[in-house]
Design brief:
Keywords: DNA-binding, Transcription, Transcription regulation
Strand order of the largest sheet: 2-3-1-4
Radius of gyration: 21 Å
Number of strands: 6
Largest sheet: 4 strands, antiparallel
CATH topology of the largest domain: Alpha-Beta Plaits
Shape: flat
Strand content: 15-25%
Number of helices: 4
Domain HTH asnC-type: 1-65
GO molecular function, one term: sequence-specific DNA binding
Protein name: AsnC family transcriptional regulator
Number of domains: 2
Order of helices and strands: HHEHEEHEEE
CATH class of the largest domain: Alpha Beta
Structural class: alpha+beta
Oligomer: single chain
Length: 147
């Protein structure tokens, strides 16, 4: 989104928006910019994404933080969240295949002393991510036939 787009949305000048963005970057409020890629449109891409529910035994004095830090340092991990509910950490990983992710879970994640159990969910299709819709509704031009 450009400064011009934002200025129209909030009713401020483009220069004011640019100054605001610079101030937010300096204050580390805006910490990273990224491109959002629709990998389904890349012909040779075989990327696999999985969300892993992790139950953890918290450590005295540090809680879940130390375990979360150990997990987010693995190169396969793209995000880690502390959750409420049935499990403690939600870990998103990416790999070249389901086998690669399975090896990550069995050889790196599950063997951590604090990890009690894991449940892995493989992403089958992405419909919406970061507010962006990936698949627009297709118009069905077929004729309705009923018995």
């Amino acid at each position: 989104m450009t400064a011009s787009d934002i200025s129209k949305m909030i009713g401020k000048s483009e220069e004011a928006v640019q100054a605001m963005v610079k101030k937010l970057e300096e204050a580390k409020v805006l910490v990273h910019y990224t491109a959002l890629v629709d990998w389904s449109k890349v012909d040779d891409d075989q990327r696999v994404t999985a969300m892993i529910d992790v139950k953890v035994t918290p450590k005295r004095g540090v809680g879940f933080h130390e375990t979360a830090e150990r997990i987010y340092r693995f190169k396969e991990v793209s995000s880690v969240y502390l959750m409420s509910g049935a499990y403690d950490l939600s870990v998103t990983v990416e790999g070249k295949s389901m086998n690669e992710i399975a090896r990550f879970v069995s050889e790196k994640l599950s063997v951590l002393e604090e990890v009690v159990s894991t449940t892995t969910h493989f992403q089958l299709k992405k419909y919406k991510h970061d507010g962006r819709i990936f698949e627009e509704k297709q118009i069905d031009n077929r004729i309705v036939v009923s018995p």
